[in-house]
Amino acid sequence: MPHVKLDDVEIYYEVHGDRPATYVFCHGLGGSGSSFNSELDFWTQHFRVITWDNRGLGRSSPAAKYSAPLYAQDLNGLLAHLGIEQALIHGVSWGGVLVQQFALDYPERCAALVIDSSSSEVNVEASEGWYARGEGARLAHKTGEPSSVRPEHLDSYVAQARAVAGLREHPYTPRLKQITCPALVVGGGQDATAGAGGSVILSRVLPNAELKIWQDGTHGLFRSKRDEFRELVLEFARRHGILT
């Protein structure tokens, strides 16, 4: 199983396909790169696809610290290890938050972004909801109640939930004008997790953004609107010279 040692953590990753252009998938809250496995047969026809597990999740090792800049630093270290200068970076939900941090910190690595079912800021209600997710998981482990979060993943899960909650007081929105690479922002009108409003905000602030809202789409458009999403991303990648 491929791991790369990066300072205080070992990151699990997989490389699929051998096309010239690279597509990196960044998973959602508490997830892993395996959530993209059902998509690989399609995307490897067009890209070399990189999937990876955030620190403290999936098959990556736990770490002493967790923060959005550290998750982004891990991705940069992984791409450097693989010799990848630039890639199309796709983040879904929490992964979309991570992608924003990555593009701010490592703009030279970003050929383009796909931000799926995410936001650069949250309101009070959403912030409290995300915080409650993390605390609920922590409480369940403390009391022995059933939980979908494995014990070894708890710290990273809580950190990610808190990072999203923190977008209320520390939004990315004022900083997004710094991200000048092409960005495709997609949202779903029936997304009960993130809503579509955050996608609209992202598209208005990112200097080189395009927006697509599917009114019947749910959370994670790469799955809920699979065929339409695939067609849209390929057209976007060709138009910006990522695919020829």
Could you explain the architecture of this structure?
37% of the residues lie in helices and 19% in strands. It is built from eight helices and eight strands, in the order βββαβαβαβααβαβαα. The protein has helices at 40-43, 68-82, 94-105, 124-143, 154-165, 197-205, 221-224, 226-239, and strands spanning 3-6, 9-16, 22-26, 48-52, 87-92, 110-116, 183-188, 209-214. An eight-stranded mixed sheet has the order 1-2-4-3-5-6-7-8, with helices on both faces. Helix 4 (124-143) packs antiparallel against helix 5 (154-165).
Number of individual domains: 1
Rounded to the nearest angstrom, the radius of gyration is: 17 Å
CATH homologous superfamily grouping: Alpha/Beta hydrolase fold, catalytic domain
State the end-to-end distance: 32 Å
Helix content: 25-40%
Give the topology string: H per helix, E per strand.
EEEHEHEHEHHEHEHH
* Biggest β-sheet description: 8 strands, mixed
CATH domain topology: Rossmann fold
Q: Write the CATH architecture name.
A: 3-Layer(aba) Sandwich
How much of the polypeptide forms β-strand, as a percent range? 15-25%
Number of beta strands:
8
* Contiguous uncertain segments of 5+ residues: none
Mean pLDDT: 97
How many separate helices? 8
